[in-house]
Amino acid sequence: MPEVLTPEQIAFYREEGYLVLERRIPAPVMDSIRAEIARFTEMARGMTASDDRLDLEDSHTPDAPRVRRVKLPHTQSRPIDELMRSDLILAPVRDLIGSNLRLQTTKLNMKSAGFGAAVEWHQDWGFYPYTNDDVLAVGVMIDDFTPANGPLMVFPGTHRGRAYDHHHDGRFVGAMDLAASGLDMKDAVPLMGPAGSISIHHARIVHGSALNRSTQDRRVIFYEMMAADAFPVHGGRGKWEGLEEFDARMLCGTSTLEPRVVPCPMRIAYPDPPSQGSIYEVQKGLGKRSFEVLQ
């Protein structure tokens, strides 16, 4: 029996590739997360370049810190780690992909008011294909997500389709030329909700988000995870540092040495992109952008 989702919600996710659960996270938990975000922003004061903890906005200065991403925030923050391991996050995921779950990665995207960077259209699957596609991302909405502040947008049903080309001039750039891919922006659906809501999106669904030019922050924690019997495909960029480290990322249930192999379309995420670093840097190699950038 499902733990928290209705049969209708599960069927919707299967068909459309996404789900929004409003006000899933209690206010005291959200307050603790916001306190951590303030701490991360203060950490960036005085920094002149991104490092292995913080990815800085192009408009960042040491005196006016602007963070666009906190890398692996669960390793830097106890509240973020505790939330990830709680049933607030794991229960709906178990309802969708089973009781044995493993972490792929985490990130805290800080799309701040007035300058938060856009993320071009892509499939997470373009970065890290696995032996099966029970792979998804849970997004925790730190702020109210509205049409004006650059919410995550998805193309419903694309998780059941092909693996789109994320290359430009023969190199992987982690983004799609939307028109060349046969998709029209008007068909995209924004995933919106009040602060404390969560979104869930399939790793194969096409998604992206625009620049935040509003006066309201739009910050989100992404917990990316997969079924324990999904193993990274060689040639992808899924994390693999050996079996011991792989099993250390188990979130609940039991690990296995028997990968479940399901036919799924995929493309190899190589040759390396011209720009290295976070997705923001990698996507700078895209020839034709769908979203404007801050000048």
UniProtKB/TrEMBL annotation:
Its cofactor is Fe(2+). Keywords: Dioxygenase, Oxidoreductase. Transmembrane segments: none annotated. InterPro entries: Phytyl_CoA_dOase-like. Pfam families: PhyH (PF05721). Gene3D superfamilies: q2cbj1_9rhob like domain. GO terms for molecular function: 2-oxoglutarate-dependent dioxygenase activity; iron ion binding. This is Ectoine hydroxylase-related dioxygenase (Phytanoyl-CoA dioxygenase family). It comes from Silicimonas algicola.
